Amino acid sequence: MRGPPCPACDAPSEAGDRFCIQCGEALQAKRAPFSASNNRVVVAAAVLFGLVLVVVVVLRVGGDGSTPGDEGSPSAPAGGAPGSATPLGPTSRVDLGSMTPRQAANRLFTRVMTAVEAGNQLEAAQFLPMAIAAYDLIPALSLDDRFHLSLLHAQGGDGTAALRVAEAGLAVRPTHLLCLAAAAEAAILLDDEAKARAHYQTLVDVYEEESRAELVEYGTGEGGHAPLLPVLRGEAAEYLASGRQ
After folding, report:
1. pLDDT value at 126 more than 60
2. Model confidence at 37: pLDDT above 60
3. Which of 58, 60, 76, 181 could form a disulfide with 92 if both were Cys (CB 3.0 to 4.6 A apart)?
4. Are 20 and 9 in contact (CB under 8 A)?
């Protein structure tokens, strides 16, 4: 069954599509979030389709508009060697069938934050709703997931959601440095200086011991934020020294 054409580029869509596979525009902006009361079969099918669609959109828009197998696009050499490169890595190494919800969400998070750092607000805004939706597909958010999702909400200007997500992580581990920083930033966005100060003070107080915890997100390997931790401590100390109440 066909869905409505894309309102931005008029590309055709399939029934149930959430985003245009050509330009990434939202097709159903007012779609209600999934809830436990939905029909389980419909929900499972929609979640699986949404995840695959998110990754397809990133791959198509991320490179030169082509996908592996398109006429004229490089194919992967025999033996599993990389094919054409995209911002997500070699296309030959992106396996939609084996990608988990967390992997897709992390790739989209990186896409959004890379665009922000490059000053490309248009691209960041284009991929932001897809990134948030991708984290919604993860069955159980880790503390690092909550850090990422809080930053995405903050990037979208939703301080309330950003603070809620970060503080949910702190309910699990009150000393988590990344969630403390995200919660403080969300509080600043909401002009709640008292709460921002409280979270930043906790971050400074527990930093030395907490930074030695053997958490993946504190490490230097894949998924680790080791270089970011001292930066966050510096920002916290600077805010506390500013004398704002």
Report:
1. yes
2. no
3. 76
4. yes
Q: Which of 214, 205, 166, 212 is nearest to 188 (CA)?
A: 166
* Rounded distance between C-alpha atoms, residue 88 and residue 228, angstroms: 21
**Position 86 pLDDT exceeds 70:** no
Strand-pairing partners, residue 19, are 26
Predicted pLDDT of residue 5: 76
Does the structure show a pLDDT above 70 at 116?
yes
Considering only CA atoms, which of 43, 24, 23 is closest in space to residue 32? 43
The predicted structure's pLDDT at residue 38: 42
The DSSP 8-state label assigned to residue 34 in this structure reads P
Beta bridge partners of 90: 85
Q: How far is CA 119 from the centre of its chain?
A: 17
Q: Which amino acid is at 182?
A: A
Inter-axis angle of helices 193-210 and 228-241, to 10 degrees?
A: 140
Cβ atoms of 178 and 225 within 8 Å: the answer is yes
Specify whether the CB–CB gap between 136 and 146 falls below 8 A. no
Indicate yes or no: pTM above 0.70.
no
State residue 183 phi and psi, 5-degree precision: -65, -40
For residue range 131-147, list pLDDT tens digits in order.
999 999 998 999 999 99
Task: Note whether 226 and 218 are within 8 A (CB).
Answer: yes
What is the distance between the alpha carbons of residues 88 and 161, in angstroms, rounded to a whole number? 27
